[in-house]
Amino acid sequence: MPAWLLAVAEPVTEATEGSAEKGILDAILESNLINIAIILSLLYILGRRVVGEALAKRREGILEELRQAEQRKQEAIERLAEEQQKLAQAQQEAERIRKQAEANAEARRQELLQQAEREIERLRANAERDLSAEQEQILQELRRQIVRQALSKVEQELPQHLNEQVHQRLIERGIQMIAR
User: Fold this and answer.
1) What's the CA gap between 62 and 67, in Å, rounded?
2) Cα dist. 83→68, 89, 113 in Å?
3) Which CDD domains match?
4) Quick count: other Cβ atoms within 10 Å of Cβ 143?
5) If both were cysteines, with which of 26, 33, 65, 111 could 16 make a disulfide (CB 3.0 to 4.6 Å apart)?
6) Please, which residues have CB within 8 angstroms of residue 172's CB and are 6 or more apart in sequence?
7) For residue range 9-46, what is the model confidence (pLDDT) as tens digits?
8) Does pTM surpass 0.85?
9) CB contact at 8 A, 24 and 42
10) What is the 3-state secondary structure of the chain?
11) How big is the chain by its Cα radius of gyration, in Å?
C-alpha cells in the first residue's frame, strides 16, 4: 500500500479506538479507506498506462500533424517558388512582346512615313506635270489668240498698204507661227 494512504488511515484508526460504537464505524471507514486506496492504486496503475497511451497517441497525433504541416509548408514554398518563376517568365514574355510591339509600331510608322513621302512626291510630280501641261496649253491658246488678232488687224490694215505679193508672205508667216 502506498505510504500516503497509510498516513491518512493511521490517524483515523487512533481516533476511533476509544469507543465501541465507533469501532464498527471505524472498521467500515477503515475498510472504505482501504478500498479507496486499492481503487486509487488500481486507477493509478491502470490509468497511468491508459492515460500514458492516450497521451502518447495524442503526442503522436500532434507530431504527425506538425510533420504534415511542415510538409504542406514545404509544398507551399515550392509552389510559391514555381509561381514566382512563372510570374517572372510571364513578365519577361510581356516585356519581349512589348518591345516587339514597339519595334513593329516604329517599323510601321517608318513605312507609313515613307509611303506618305512617296505619295507626296507623286502628287507633286503630277501637279508639276499637270501645271506644265496646262501652262503649255494656255501659252498655245494665247499664241493662237495673238496670231488671230494680229492676222485680223493685219487683214484690216494690210490691203490698204500692201500689194498682193507682200500679202501672200504674211499669210505664210502666220501659218508657220500657228503650226508651232
Assistant:
1) 9
2) 22, 10, 44
3) ATP-synt_Fo_b
4) 13
5) 26
6) none
7) 455 445 444 556 777 777 777 788 888 888 888 888 87
8) no
9) no
10) CCHHHHHHHHHHHHHHCCCCHHHHHHHHHHHHHHHHHHHHHHHHHHHHHHHHHHHHHHHHHHHHHHHHHHHHHHHHHHHHHHHHHHHHHHHHHHHHHHHHHHHHHHHHHHHHHHHHHHHHHHHHHHHHHHHHHHHHHHHHHHHHHHHHHHHHHHHHHHHHHCCHHHHHHHHHHHHHHHHC
11) 66
Spell out the residues 6+ positions from residue 33 whose beta carbon is closer than 8 angstroms to its own: 5, 8, 9, 12
d(CA 172, CA 72): 116
Name 36's Cβ contacts closer than 8 Å, sequence gap at least 6. none
Sequence-distant (≥ 6) Cβ neighbours of residue 14 within 8 angstroms: none
83/153 Cα distance (integer angstroms): 101
Q: Which residue has the higher pLDDT, 18 or 70?
A: 70
Q: How far apart are CA 140 and CA 148, in angstroms?
A: 12
